[in-house]
Amino acid sequence: MGLFENPQKVLVSPFNYYDYFNECFYYLYSRISCCTTDIYHFLRNMKKEFKIIRINIALLILFIGISDIVLSNVILRRSFINPKISKYGIPRQTCSTLTKYDVSNLYNESKKISITYSRDNLCYRSFEQKLNKDIVLTIGGSTTDQRFVSESNTFQDQLDDSFGKKYDFINGGVDGQSSVGHLISIENWHSKALPTDKVKHIVFYLGVNDQNIPGSTQNINSKRYSISRKIRDFLANNSYLYIQIKNIIFSNKLPRGINILAVHGPPFKPVKNPKREFVNIENLDIENYQVIIKSLINSSRKYFPNATLHFVQQQVPGCYFISRNEYLNRFPEDYKHICKSIGQVYLSMDKAIEKIQDKSFINVYPMYLSKAISDDGIYDFIHSNKKGSKEIASYLSKNLKIDQ
Question: Can you tell me whether residue 169 is helix, strand or coil?
C-alpha cells in the first residue's frame, strides 16, 4: 500500500496535539505540586528542628554563662553569693576588688611590670577607714582613678605624704565619668558612704570627659544608670570570659598579665610644628553646662556643708595653652579637636562659677595653663603613668589651698 493511499493513518489530528500538551502540563503540575508539598512538609519539620536547635543553643549559652560567673568568682577569689555589682548604682563603679595588671604593653616596656589595683567595700581607692582622719575626696574620671598606676603611686597616695598625713586623700574616680556622673555620685554614693562631717575638701579633677557637654542638650538626667550599662557592668565585674574577650578585641596584642584591660587610647605622638589656634564660646550655647556645674556645686554644698570645693581644670599635654583663649595644638589630625573642646569646657566652667553668688568656698585651678605633666608622664594622650601621677601630685601639693 502506498504512502498516500490512506492518509488518515499517517496524519495526526490537531486535537491529539492539544491532548498531548495537556497531559504534559498536568503531569508537570502534579510533579510540582508533589514537590511543593514535600518542600512544605520539609520546611515545617525543619522549623520544628530549628526551634529545638534554638532552645538547645539558649540552654547552652545559659549553662556557659552560669558556669562562667561561678568559675570567675573562684578565679578572681570572690564569693558567688556576693557578685561584684555597682553598690550605689553608679555606672562603671567597682567595689571590693583586688586586681593585678601587667602594664608592660601600656608603658612600652619589654619586661613585665605588675601593678595592683584595689577598691574597698565602699568602692574607694586609697581610703584608710580605720585612721579616722579628715577627708579630702577627689572626684573625676579615669584620670583620677588611675587604673594602671599601682597603690601608693597614685597622686592621692602621694598627697597623703605631701600634707603630712593630716588628711586622707580618697580616690573616688570612675572611668568615663563626666560632671553629670559626678553629680549623681555626690547624691547616690559619696553622701551615703562617707561621714559628712569628716569631708573637709572635695577636689574635682575634670575637663576631658566634659568636652562634649557645652553646646549639647545633655542634662543632669542623661547619664542615669541604664539597663544596658548595668548588664555590661555586671559582666565586667563578674565574667572572666567577658574580660578576656574584651582584652582580645581591644588590646594591641594578647594580654601577658593576669587581667590587663584595653589601652584607653593610642600613644601620644606630638606633631613637630604645632599650630597656633584660638578658642571662644561666643556662639556656643553653654546654658545647659552651667546648670550642671551649678547643680554639682549646690549638691556638694548640701551633702557636705563643711567642705571647700576645688575645681582643678586638668592639663592635656597635647595642648600648650598660652592663655585661656590661645593655644598651640600639638595633636595629629585625628585628635586636633581636643584642644578646642577642652578650652571651651574651661571657659564655660569659669562662666558658670562666676554666676555663683557665694564663692567663698570655691577655688578654681587652671592647671591647663601650666606644663605640669610631661609628655612621658602619660601612656596615651591624657592618662598618667607612675611619673605622670607624681607630676600631678606635685602640682596639687603646691597649689591646693588646703592647710598643711
Answer: strand
Cα torsion through 16, 17, 18, 22, rounded to 10:
100
Fold of 133-220+266-398: Rossmann fold (3.40.50)
pTM metric for this prediction: 0.75
Nearest to 341 by CA among 172, 215, 234, 161: 215
CA pair distance 317, 46, nearest whole angstrom: 61
Q: Is the dihedral of CA 157, 159, 165, 168 positive or negative?
A: negative
- What does the domain layout of the chain look like in residue ranges? 13-75, 133-220+266-398
pLDDT digits (tens, 9 = 90+) for 23-57: 666 666 666 666 666 666 666 676 666 677 777 77
Check the CA dihedral 87-173-208-401 and report its sign. Answer: positive
Whether the pLDDT of residue 251 is over 50: the answer is no
Q: How far is CA 119 from the centre of its chain?
A: 18
| Neighbour tally for 36: CB within 10 Å | 10
